Amino acid sequence: MEYASIDREIHIDAPPEVVFEVISTPEHVREWWSVSTDFEPAPGSTSELVWADGDNPRAHVEQLSVVVTDPPRVFSFRWTNPPGESAVEGNSNLVTFELEPAGTGTLLRFSETGFRERGWEAAAIEERYLSHSEGWDRFVPIIKTYAERLEAA
Amino acid sequence: MTTAVDDELWSAIGDPTRRRMLDLMLHGDGTATTLSEQLPVTRQAVAKHLGVLDRVGLVQATAAGREKRYRIDQAQFARAVAQLNDVGRTWDARLGRIKQISEAIASRRTTGG
Predict the structure, then answer these.
(1) Domain count of the fold of chain B
(2) What ipTM describes this predicted complex?
(3) Which of A19, A123, A124, B109 has its CA 20 to 30 A from that of B86?
(4) Cα A93 to Cα B11: distance, rounded to the nearest angstrom
(5) How many CB atoms lie within 10 A of CB A80?
(6) A92 CA: distance to closest CA in chain B (Å)
(7) CB of A152 less than 8 A from some CB of B
């Protein structure tokens, strides 16, 4: 079965070991994803992804589960599964980073799959929220629309 | 627009054969026969895929002799592409930051030790 996916390739002028560290350790993930999280870089480890907004430290929360850690080649995780449910195919998106040495640097291949089962709503909401981040004035109406759409479905 | 419709739209463009068919039809109308000649799948399979694309409004059919002739519905196609692009763009930004951070670390390690 095929699923809608986002696929990207990017060359990074740093060795795979460094890139792997950046994509798989919470210290760095917090920086490039602008999120609070505290997973262990080990298969099965779970954590929340928490976005603060103004006075609300938990304005937006998602679940994350590490799937594969194979340094410095593969790091993958599932996310956006409902709280209390284990992340499996069908209730979450799978993000995979594959690293390959390229000269003195790294070819980083990225993919995110799972939209087909889950629809694009969760990702689109996150995109709107994180790319704008203007606070509750903007966020609340989006949540409202989302909830209404879910109800109408 | 309901969630169900969006899910179907996403599902329709999620299939690589259907994406190739859309690519071909961006260059001109197609029928199940003409499209199957350019793809490694049977005419029957192409006809089924066209049915899926038709249901979500990505193509429009007109009668043309024995066969239906399909063309891309530009508005619906643009909408589907925009949805994928929105999500893709957030990852482009994140990947850009991953690149920056990695390269900064690598250059610190080679120059500063």
Answers:
(1) 1
(2) 0.73
(3) A19
(4) 14
(5) 21
(6) 15
(7) yes
Model pTM? 0.62
**A153·B83 Cβ contact <8 A:** no
Domain A5-118 in this protein, CATH class: alpha beta
With beta carbons under 8 A apart, name residues in chain A contacting B6: 119-121
Q: Which of B1, B86, B90 would best serve as a mutation to test chain A binding (most A beta carbons within 10 A)?
A: B90
Spell out the per-residue pLDDT of chain B, length 113, in tens: 334 456 677 677 767 788 789 888 888 899 999 999 999 999 999 999 999 999 989 999 999 888 899 998 888 877 776 666 666 777 888 898 899 999 999 998 887 65
Domain that holds residue B22: 3-111
Q: How far is A55 from chain B (nearest CA, A)?
A: 24
Distance from CA of A86 to the nearest CA of B (A): 22
Identify the residue whose tokens are 């956006």: A80
